[in-house]
Amino acid sequence: MRGGPYVDLILVRLLFVLVVAVTCYVIEPFGLPSKLDAGVGALVGLGIVLFEWRLRRVRLTRLIGAAIGSILGICGAYLFALVIRNSVPASHTQSFLQILVMLLMAYVGLIVGANKGDLLNLAALGGIFGGEKQSKKSYKILDTSVIIDGRIADIAETGFLDGIVVTPQFDSDCGERLPLCP
User: Rounded to the nearest 5 degrees, what angle is found at the Cα of 101, between the Cα atoms of 64 and 78?
Assistant: First the structure.
């Protein structure tokens, strides 16, 4: 096949922009003439494609954090909207305040969640997200006294130590001829 998967992605994106433009042409959601609505729809579709293109560069932990944060923000906004609905008389102001609170809370949740998403440990989920690159390997270098003491074996058996346990070669030799070690 000529061009490969990159050409397919470009075609899918162009098709998406075209579908949004045609939908806006038919429905006229902005109350403008049909051709102008189609142009605005094409710009909206292009904006969504650019957003998706930028989103591909974000780490998975940040995406998960952002999604969780925005969901929690929207849930909080719903609670605020209930208060606004019961305290502000029904009008355009009430609708505006409800939409504003929803956008504000979703935005704040998204930003805070994305920033805190770096703290997520995807390895704790049992490898569900195997595509995410693991961080640096963690090495535990043991000393002769720790090996002789014997407690390290008990700790290692419990699984409390994560990473790779390293015993230097000279320590291994020293353990074999224990009386000769300083």
Answer: 70
- Residue 24: how many other CB atoms lie within 10 Å: 23
Closest CA to 152 of 175, 177, 178, 128: 175
pLDDT at 144: 72
Q: Which residues contact 77 (CB under 8 A, 6 or more apart)?
A: 101, 102, 104, 105, 106
Distance CA 2, CA 66 (A): 37
pLDDT tens readout for residues 27-52? 999 889 999 999 999 999 999 999 99
Q: Where are the domains of the chain?
A: 1-57, 59-125, 139-180
State pTM to two decimals.
Answer: 0.54
First to last CA, the chain: 69
Decide if pLDDT at 130 tops 60. Answer: no
How many whole angstroms separate alpha carbon 160 and alpha carbon 152? 10
Most confident range (mean pLDDT) of 101-105, 150-154, 169-173 is 101-105
Q: Is 28 exposed, middle or buried (0-12, 13-18, 19+ CB in 10 A)?
A: middle
Which residues of 83-163 form beta strands (DSSP E)? Answer: 139-141
Q: Which residue has the tokens 């963690």?
A: 138
CA 56 from centroid of its chain's CA atoms: 11
Specify the pLDDT at position 23: 95
DSSP 8-class letter at 165: E
